[in-house]
Structure formats: C-alpha cells, structure tokens
Amino acid sequence: MALSAERRRSKYLELKAAVLQKELDKTETLSDFDKAFDLREEERARNDQSRRLVQIASKAEEEMETAEQNLLQ
C-alpha cells in the first residue's frame, strides 16, 4: 500500500513539474513577443517606412504565432 501511494505522489510531482514548465515557457514566449513589439514601436517612431521596421514586424508576427501555438498545447 505504501509503495502505491509513493508512486501516485511521484506521478503527481512529475505532472506538476510539467505544468509549471509549460507555464514558464508560455511566459518566456510572451516576453519575447513584447520585446519584439517594443523594437517595432521604436523603429516606427524613427522611420515609418524603414526596411528594419518590416523585419521587426515579421519577427513580432512569428513570436505571436509561437505564443498562440504554446497556448493551444
């Protein structure tokens, strides 16, 4: 009986660790998106038609798609 309880406790801790890791990954992804968005806004303030702005916007879109995929998982 004690072994069974120990296995359940171990499985619970493994699942809890997986959930916490997923939440951490989600937070990091959203943080990366925020950084890319901030870069885009800074570049837009300097020059609204720059090639760099297009690159940053593209990166921001990629980060957003990654964040959405992580939320769906």
From TrEMBL:
Source domain of life: Eukaryota
Protein name from the UniProt record: Uncharacterized protein
Organism: Fusarium musae
